[in-house]
Amino acid sequence: MKTKTIMKTIIQARILPALAGIILIFSAALASAQPLVVDSFDNAASIGQGNTPGLDWVNYRGYTVTTAWDPTQDSTGNPNSGSMYVTVNWPQPTNPAYTTAWTDMQFGFSTGGPFDSSDYIQFDCDIKVDVTNSYTALDGSYGAIELIVNNPWNNVVGWAQLTATNGWQHFTGFFSAIPGGSYNEAIVGLISQGTGTFTNTVSYWIDNVVFTAPPAVNTNRPVLTIGKAPPAGLTCICSQGGGTYQRQVIRTVNSDYSWNTATATSSTTKYTMNIASFPGANYQGFASQMFLVPQAGMIGAPADSDIDWDSADVADLYVTVNPDKSATGTFQYKVNQSSSWNASLIVTNHCASGPLGRWSLTFNNNTNVTLTAPDNTSTNFTIPASDAAIFQDPVFVYVGDQPNATANIGQSSTISQLTVTGAAASINDNFTSLDPGTWVNDTSSDPLGILITAADAKYSITWPTPDGGFTNVFATDKLNGGQWLTLPTASTGWTAVGGVERYTVINQSTLNSAFGYAPTNCFFQLYHP
Questions:
Q1: Would the pLDDT of 11 be above 70?
Q2: Average pLDDT in the 520-527 region?
Q3: 3-class SS at 46?
Q4: How many CA atoms lie within 13 A of 401 on its CB side?
Q5: 182 CB contacts (<8 Å, ≥6 apart)?
Q6: Cα 496 to chain center, whole Å?
Q7: Degrees, nearest 5: CA angle 303-402-19
Q8: What are phi and psi of 483, to 5 degrees?
Q9: Cα(222)–Cα(330) distance, rounded to whole angstroms?
Q10: Spatial CB neighbours of 95, under 8 Å, sequence gap ≥ 6
Q11: Residue 108 scores a pLDDT above 80
């Protein structure tokens, strides 16, 4: 049984009253190493393409875009520097090029050679809108931005709103939200899409594209916070940093789950989704969801992290919580609408008891549909036969959740059961494991945020990042004279959440294995060699 001595620099311990015997320990102000300044726009040459490091290329999507160096605007107030002034002539609604679909103006910056993302904590950038010479988007904002690294391409911040203000706005994306490895470009994108679609010109200042380094000396002591583990089932954490609209979903391996009687084995097909845990009423917009997607309408492979947006034909059941803690189940579908969500029909059903429990969709004779909530209230409706015909096999099932608001990043829901009956193939899965014959985790925005929570899951533990140098969670059942025992990372599974914290689940069986018996009290700490 592997042991370690307790870290001598622990400075405080306290017990949670609601979870007796569980301790929160300060484990390790940061002395920072050198950042990588990709472009600080110190002179006019900095905005010329082909710089290494610095601005290397642009993608204007055929729109008219101008750039200039402005020495009068610097996000830090440095009189010896400046910023890049960008004017985008977004098409007006009367222009044939006008679209509400996702459109981004991309500025690609060379990093001066390959860099390892593990050498840096975060991707930072400052942006200011010239409100005097700009028009707001449809929703009154100034659209959104994205921060990307390339070669290979990975979104560090997939979507972050530019608010309607005339000051500098600082954007941060965390490298812990993407796969570690070598990259050689940084990309800043300006986005027009959906309710954030522009209808006229917008001018921006962009400054200080910088990668922040981790501490040079490990003096950080992350504070551990403990909570109750999620219930047993498929737990989907919205863990992608900056991913306001990330889809944390898995999909079926096979594609014979249509309700249409051209391929279904019954005239009645039923889909159910049992929600075992869901965020509270403060997290408006968060949704647990199930998509039914015909392969014929996909613009690419079924492994698409934006499958419901990209595909032309999608049927969608999603559940949200209301401010009074009741819930709303919504069924919507679209046909022939790739890269948009112009629904052909939207039907809702109120559930007074809240989001937890079994939600179901029942299709009878292709066009007659019933949406049923956990409190047994239901709504009946029909869809046109011509639309139902589009949803013939091959049809894949996708299930998981989506934050839909920046404040909801890091939240999660748990699906304890999903069933499909009456289709050519059936599913009855309690998610005791991720059955490779039924499911594949290749569509989620952050695959590491998809967990199977065991039936004996006991505690969840979180702590803030950076946490460089810490290797394991350790546990003891006696603070005075007890032995600290290692809980292997392979057993606890550290998940980076939102780029700002770690999350792990401690199972009772993991504790039993480490201690050689079932401890009744348990205290936890991180270890730093």
A1: no
A2: 87
A3: helix
A4: 36
A5: 114, 115, 116, 117
A6: 11
A7: 120
A8: -95, 130
A9: 40
A10: none
A11: yes
DSSP structure string for 101-142: S-EEEEEEEEEEEEEEGGG-SEEEEEEEE-GGG----TTSS-
Torsion sign across C-alpha atoms 287, 242, 310, 141: positive
**74 touches 207 (CB < 8 A):** yes
Three-class SS state of 390: helix
The amino acid present at 13, given as its one-letter code, is: A
User: Distance between CA 31 and CA 76 in Å, rounded?
Assistant: 21
Question: Which residues are within 8 A (CB) of 103 and not within 5 positions of it... i.e. 6 or more apart?
Answer: 61, 191, 192, 193
How would you label 192-216 residue by residue, b for 16+ Cβ within 10 Å and e otherwise? bbbebbbbeebbbbbbbbbbbbbbe
Residue 487: burial class (beta carbons within 10 Å; 0-12, 13-18, 19+) = buried
Residue pLDDT, tens place only, 81-94:
999 999 999 999 99
Does residue 47 register a pLDDT over 90?
Answer: no
Cβ 69 vs Cβ 48: under 8 Å:
no
The helix/strand count (H/E) of the chain reads as: 4, 37
Q: Is the pLDDT of residue 21 over 80?
A: no
Task: Identify the band that residue 1 occupies on the pLDDT scale cut at 50, 70 and 90.
Answer: very low
Decide: residue 220, CB within 10 A, 0-12 exposed, 13-18 middle, 19+ buried: buried
Lowest model confidence (mean pLDDT) among 33-37, 254-258, 282-286, 353-357: 33-37
Q: For residue range 277-328, list pLDDT tens digits in order.
A: 999 999 999 999 999 999 999 998 999 989 999 999 999 999 999 999 999 9
Q: Cα–Cα distance between 419 and 273 in angstroms, integer?
A: 7
**Distance (Å, whole) CA 221 – CA 148:** 30
Residue 221 amino acid letter: R
For residue 206, give both structure tokens.
């962009």
- The torsion region of residue 325 among left (phi > 0), alpha (psi -120 to 50) and beta comes to left
pTM here?
Answer: 0.74
- pLDDT tens-digit profile of 474-513? 899 998 888 889 887 777 778 888 778 889 999 999 999 9
Residue 509's closest CA among 489, 525, 487, 526? 487
Question: Do 86 and 64 contact (CB within 8 A), yes or no?
Answer: no
Concatenating the DSSP letter of every residue in 245-292 gives T--EEEEESS-B---STTT-SSSEEEEEEEEEE---TTSTT-EEEEEE
What DSSP state is assigned to residue 229?
P
The predicted-structure confidence for 358-382, as pLDDT tens digits, reads as follows 999 999 999 999 999 999 999 999 9
Rounded Cα distance, 472 and 217, in Å: 19
CA distance 39 to 124: 11
